[in-house]
Amino acid sequence: MELQRLSIKLFSESTNVKPPEFVPVFHAWIRNQKLKDHLMIDVSDYNHVPDGPGTLLVTHEGNFSLALAEGKLSLLYQRKRFLEGTLTERLNTAFKALLNASELLEQEPDFRNRLSFDRNSFWVISNDRLNLPNTDQSFEELRPALSELATEFFGHDHFSLNCNSGEKERLSVMVESSVLN
Amino acid sequence: MSSWKKQLASQIPADWGKEIDIFETQIELRKIGKLDEKIFAETRLRRGVYGQRYDNGQRHDGVQTQKLSYPSGLLKGPETVWDAPGMLRIKIPFGGVTPDQLDVLAEVAEEYSNGILHVTTRQDFQYHYIHIEDTPDIMRRLAAVGITTREACGNSVRNLTACPKAGVCSGEDFDVTPYARALTDFLLGHPDCQDFGRKVKIAFSGCQGEACGLVMMHDMGALAVKKTRRGRDIHGFALYVGGGLGTVPYQAKLFDAFLPPEELLPIAQSIARVFGRLGEKKNRAQARLKFLVAKLGIEEFRRLVWEERQVLPEDDRWTSYLEQLPAYGEKPLKPPSTLSGEKILPEGFAEWQRSNVKAQKQPGYAIVTVALPLGDLSSDQTRKLADVVRLYVGDSIRTTVEQNFVLRWVSEADLPDLYADLLEIGLADTGANTIVDVTACPGTDTCKLGISASRGLAEELRTRLAAKSYEMDEAVRNLRIKVSGCFNSCGQHHVADIGFFGNSRTLNGYKVPHFQVILGGQWAENAGAFGMTIGAVPSKRIPEVVDRITDHFVHSRKQGENFCDFIARIGKKELRSLIENLMKNAPSFEENPDFYRDWGDPREFTMLDRGIGECAGEVISASQFDLADAEREVFEAQLELEKKNYAQADELAYRSMVGASRALIKQQYHDVPERAEIIVEEFTLRFLDTELFYDKYARGKFARYLLQRHQQGPVHADADSVHQLIDQAQLFIDAAHACYARCAVE
Asked: Does A58 contact B129 at a Cβ distance shorter than 8 Å?
């Protein structure tokens, strides 16, 4: 499968951190070269758009955004540039980028004890309607790689994969652990 | 990487598909260094592929300038790094867009951009953070639903704008939509529009009195005029030329008070030819049509255009669309109705109805404005809006120059349900077309030329004004605020009641973002007058400027006096005194560091991030484009040779030489025919007989390659002979380049 453009999302249960608070944090990340494996370019604020990307850290390789989705804070990594390896390896690389960003954000002094991401579940989105359209067949094609990723991340195979994105939306799969941490 | 090319082949018009394929090849040519960066820059601009802030490979982080080390060292234009994210502008003629197009626009935004569609002040859409190598596929996906990016930027005829209420407005003389469509189609890619020194902007308006078409601030503006002769309605246009905003705004001049529709297209073509021939090409700051009209005077300009009109070769397209006009008209999805007083209305509906809903000229229907904060909406909202459009009006939706949408043909009884549905997708903001509905260009967010944060300021003003809109005096409520990030006027600040454009001042040894205050511009009467410059105020004090000016207006205006008249009456001195203390007395940096930052940007302000703008494009002559095309064709010949398609390779190599000859002839006269026989004959006459093509050492040797292939026809279909022809074609093109350079110097 040629899927290159993919997105992965984590949600947070934190209710007292709002997306605009990440604007100065991301500017500081650029200044301090916080992400070693990404060429950070700029920060964009789209918090005036409901269901939009919120606060966006634009990098050459992929964008990180913090937004409110269905009332919950989410961190999304949208991979843009080419990734090497098999689909599982590509998913792993993107997922690691997301996890790394989530950990760095949790460690930020401004968010310490206020921000935590829920790592019992995550969403994988095919950002490529040509190579992986939103169909049952695509979901089945994606399943093995996602299962591999989930097994490695959760450390067990007690998880579920659910896809219920709307007809016009991108293929979007929720990976959820059945064992709460 | 896979591509949408095959998948969408049957859905893309053949000529559009071919153009996109050519652009894709040009990208490849640039990557291997076979296309000059300046020519490539103007080529991509003419396909809507624009630069974006920080694409020169550096960015100031608030403390120092950091180098952005992109993987590729390649450039896509002067000081424009290949891998840097860019902007893609999408033309939406007269703002007309369909739900199916909205669906695809939404898909593209989330797959290649940041999930945001931005509506511009010229009814276009823009995507930001696009990688250039994704653009051919994006273009294919848009082309498959009838959208082109061609000539959205660069020195070309830009998106043709028109009143979004055309056809449904009670004040119009007639619906300008089919005329706008016809002129758009006629001028798109027209050979007479490929040799401009700068861009040309055209607008249509259905009436004199309202603002919507903004005819008076355009290079060419057509205003609908209806006359009655012998009891019959006759349609025509008051045609205006030479208007424009920019650093120094110009009001358009009347070219013809009543141009008949059959003359609209040929006169536009004649204007394009006169502008292409006489317009300034070297001094970019003087290259717009407005300067040519001012230099020649409207009488002389008019005389030249009519003189050109007399010698134009006849073209069926000038009038063929007129035959279909009687059949033109939008069909409403639903029957007309009235809003029953008994219906329980949703909360907030009354306020929304007051500002966002207008009666249509057709009884029982309404025009609804969907207000977009800063002109932005998300992919998700766009898809849902498309469904709302389908449900209530079918396909009648347009973008506006105030960065909103309008839905037309809303059956009045549907208004409460429509409001509820818009509310659910976050698109029911009230205050459309009021002081709350602030317009802004991209400014420092993404524009290379931006000085101050126009969007940051606009958002701040919008938030503050929305909070107090309920208690606002009606006269203030109806004012308009427009913000540009620099003096180039993309935010149209000159024609706002209250306008701002970004600049900077040094205070206490620090650069401080400022906005120049412009008051009293006239939005009505098609942008009938420009505002008065009052003074530059630090960015963070602009909300206070708005409060003071509006308060003064409320308290000091005469009964019935509008804002423009009020500003003209009290004059610059008094207005300046109102805000003078805001211009001075800056706090120290230590006391208030926030004063030294711009809205929405925590970095200390700097001017160091400004780059070279691409609005002016590169001045590339039609001959240079043809030579670049010849290069592309010989490259494609090599590809065909590799695939063992010898006949195609032979034909492409031959065509590349003919094309290069045509480029040279075009230096001498513009209307070069397409036929190879005539081109070769003209080339022989003008460049061989005169020895202009002769190289100092090789003399006319390379020309013989063309003549030989032309006389003998296709070479034998074997690899060696085709290979040889391709080599000869490359030598011929190299010689043509040298000849072009010699002639240009002479």
From this structure: yes
